[in-house]
Design goal:
heterodimer; A: alpha/beta; Rossmann fold; 3 domains; six-stranded parallel sheet; 24 helices; 15% strand; B: alpha+beta; Alpha-Beta Plaits; five-stranded antiparallel sheet; four-stranded antiparallel sheet
């Protein structure tokens, strides 16, 4: 059947099962927008193209389905760059479609022309410049396959205006993607699995490092069964949170720069690390030269390029995590490892005393209290979408996630402004779930224009602004490492309550701990998005902290017994 | 260690950028890169030399295989292989020095491809060492200009990085999961 290129775009999206798309129109994508009206796909009009990419990303992370964003050429496309890079770093499957000037104008510096496939080349799994209507269907089928397969990631399709306008035969079946001519088989051999089993069964002090791959590979059940059978404690990475229940007795809590102190000490003392779908990012290893020197490492990852990248693996297993564990499971011996687990308990030492949740109520409002109360009030059952910075780390520490895909956060790229749009995407992917944005006052102001999207599209999420009047994490680094010279970190903020009300959204300001749960409850029962401005302690600090590049167990701890306002003076 | 990759790619716009960008992005420095057609229509062959260790070479290979337009990668550093570089060297040659230079050219099994009143162009094919050797002995006469192709390489015998499509031994897997790997 004859279709225009623009119609083929939608024919393909419908056949790929796309129901929602996030976008912003403009000249070079107008033919596609015009054709959209005839197809059953919901379009969410964003306020900035970066928001569209984060929404597609949040949609993908909440559901596991491919998220789709749409924009015009030039500035529309370049505005997507941050969102694409965010998805790349966190292995999130999205397809970004942009219009391009007519193929005869490409290279002429035409109005709103930019070499955007050149720009997105290093931050996508693959990208395309499509100049003929005939190429659209095969490109789309291949793009969706690439985005979702293997280690997921973003794919960008740039389509010239004339390719959208011209007509050709549309044949979906003929557009089936070709498999690559050759790919080497790097999957693990039986002897690799046997070596892994020998190490596991002989280990006295093993630890599972639970990464994002558990969630991407849907390996939650087998990881849990594996840990329980062998009695191996588990620590998640930031993106691994939710892949292993927080309430499980074997879950020690998060590792890394702001991980639990006992976890980092345990990693340094372990004799075996089982890295499940994680990539030994510098934020979880600290100084690589001193990282886990006593431990053998078994690294299971679907991406062969991750094995031996940062940490040398004694056994590297390239493959899908779930399938790999299915092979290992029968050979794993049951064990109690009571001595090791008791030792980790000892490592906790006086951590409980240092925990801010256990400090006497001073009347001050702490971000950690807000997040812990949010956890209580939502029964730990909400999807929490965080931004980047101190509130993100407190969320990871004090909101206890039992389910996968319930924490959505920009880990690898650390993109401020991610939370609000990503939460919109998550809500559209999971309309029946409660979705909360936890965002700092800095990051919120980067993408707060999307409040208008929320109003226009009638979206019901809730927003908790953790407002300390600073770019808090940067301020914390200045406090520790730059003699408290607060260069460009204090913020003069708008009145967020009035701001939200100007958008037509109910809002509240909270300054006392006793008000936290009532405010959260009120927001939950409101069918509109409610913005709550939590004015928290200004110079609060995330503990523990491994300074960048320091040994993993060289942590700065919360002073104990703690004065309520930490001065940092007795810290180093 | 100098590592040599032979890479077969689809001959499409931007493929050279994708491959070279990958080396830059992953902080590997390319020592030499050549591209040309192969016996298969639509397929180009790159020879890339990069200074890295064994683990680095494995990571590069894994990364290159992630590029959709790449058909095949072979690390032929340690394989039995023929390595060649081609150079053209323009050297100053007066009437009296010309004979001396031509004797050197003979010794190196090179060829004179152009004679001008005051200069010669010498063409030499061989390993980089051999070309460096000729260059060294020509220097005293005055090397005016030089161009080199960079290394091209081919493994010996039946092993072939330019495997024909449908060659069963290393053909595409039927497993859905390996589509484009990662």
């Amino acid at each position: 059947m004859k279709r225009t290129g623009a119609q083929i775009v939608w024919e393909c999206l419908v056949r790929q099962g796309v129901t929602d798309i996030f976008g912003y129109p403009g000249g070079a994508i107008l033919p596609t927008y015009d054709a959209m009206l005839d197809y059953p796909i919901r379009h969410i009009l964003v306020r900035h193209e970066q928001g569209a990419t984060h929404m597609a990303d949040g949609y993908a992370r909440a559901s596991g389905r491919v998220g789709v964003a749409l924009a015009t050429s030039g500035p529309g496309a370049t505005n997507m760059v941050t969102g694409i890079a965010t998805a790349m770093m966190d292995s999130s499957p999205i397809v970004c479609i942009t219009g391009q000037v007519g193929s005869k104008l490409v290279g002429s510096d035409a109005f709103q022309e930019s070499d955007v496939t050149g720009v997105t080349l290093p931050i996508t799994k693959h990208n395309y410049l499509v100049t003929r209507a005939d190429d659209i269907a095969p490109t789309f089928r291949e793009a969706f396959e690439i985005a979702a397969s293997g280690r997921p990631g973003p794919v960008h399709i740039d389509i010239t205006k004339d390719a959208q306008q011209s007509s050709c035969d549309f044949d979906w079946d003929a557009a089936v993607p070709k498999k690559p001519e050759f790919r080497p088989d790097w999957s693990a051999r039986p002897e690799d699995f046997q070596r892994a089993l020998d190490l596991i069964n002989a280990a006295e002090r093993p630890l599972i490092l639970a990464g994002h791959g558990i969630i991407l590979s849907n390996a939650m059940d087998i990881v849990r069964a594996f840990a329980e059978k062998a009695n191996i404690p588990v620590s998640p990475t930031l993106l691994g949170i939710g892949g292993f229940p927080a309430s499980h007795p074997l879950n020690l809590g998060m590792m890394g720069m702001h991980g639990e102190a006992w976890v980092n000490s345990a990693i340094q003392q372990a004799d075996l690390l089982l890295a499940f779908g994680m990539r030994f990012d510098d934020r979880v290893t600290g100084n690589l030269k001193t990282y886990a020197l006593n431990a053998k490492k078994i690294h299971i990852d679907i991406d062969a390029a991750e094995i031996n990248k940062n940490v040398r693996a004694d056994v590297g297993i390239v493959g899908d995590l779930k399938e790999s564990l299915d092979v290992l499971m029968p050979g794993v011996k049951t064990g109690d490892r009571a001595t090791w687990i008791a030792h980790i308990q000892d490592l906790k030492g006086d951590s409980a005393v240092r925990d801010i949740q256990n400090l006497p109520d001073s009347g001050h409002l702490y971000a950690a209290h807000v997040i812990n109360d949010l956890w209580r009030a939502t029964n730990g059952d909400a999807i929490i979408v965080t931004d980047v910075g101190q509130h993100q780390m407190w969320e990871a520490q004090y909101y206890h996630h039992d389910k996968p895909r319930s924490l959505i956060t920009s880990g690898g790229l650390g993109t401020m402004g991610f939370a609000l749009p990503a939460a919109i995407g998550a809500k559209l992917a999971c309309p029946d779930k409660e979705v909360w944005v936890v965002v700092g006052d800095g990051g919120f102001q980067m993408t707060m224009c999307e409040l208008a999207t929320i109003v226009q599209e009638g979206i019901d999420i809730n927003v908790a602004i953790i407002n300390n009047g600073y770019l808090g994490m940067v301020r914390q680094w200045q406090e520790f490492f730059y003699e408290r010279r607060y260069a460009a970190t204090p913020l003069v903020n708008p009145d967020f309550k009035k701001l939200a009300e100007a958008f037509g959204l109910p809002a509240q300001t909270v300054t006392m701990r006793s008000e936290v749960i009532p405010a959260v409850e009120a927001a939950r029962s409101n069918r509109k998005t409610v913005v709550i401005d939590f004015k928290v302690e200004q110079e609060d600090t995330v503990y523990p902290m491994v300074p960048a590049g320091a040994d993993l167990d060289a942590m700065i701890r919360r002073p104990s017994p703690s004065p309520i306002v930490e001065t940092g003076a007795d810290v180093l | 260690m100098m590592t040599t990759f032979a890479i077969l790619v689809e001959n499409k716009p931007g493929v050279l950028t994708r491959v070279s960008s990958l080396f830059r992005r992953r902080a590997f420095n390319i020592e030499s890169l050549t591209v040309g057609h192969t016996d298969r229509p639509g397929v180009s062959r790159m020879t890339i030399v990069v200074d890295t260790d064994e683990l680095g070479a494995r990571r590069i290979e894994a990364h290159i295989y992630k590029l959709v337009n790449v058909l095949r990668v072979e690390n032929i550093t340690l394989a039995p292989a023929v390595f060649r570089d081609l150079a053209m060297i323009k050297v100053a040659a007066s009437a009296e020095s010309r004979t001396h230079i031509m004797q050197l050219v003979d010794v190196f099994r090179a060829r004179v491809v152009d004679v001008a009143p005051d200069s010669l162009i010498i063409e030499i094919t061989g390993t980089e060492d051999k070309i460096d050797g000729l260059l060294e002995v020509l220097r005293p006469y005055g090397v005016m200009e030089m161009v080199r192709t960079g290394r091209v390489a081919m493994s010996r015998g039946l092993r072939s990085s330019a495997a024909a499509p449908g060659e069963a031994a290393a053909g595409p897997s039927e497993d859905e999961n390996v589509f484009h790997s990662v």
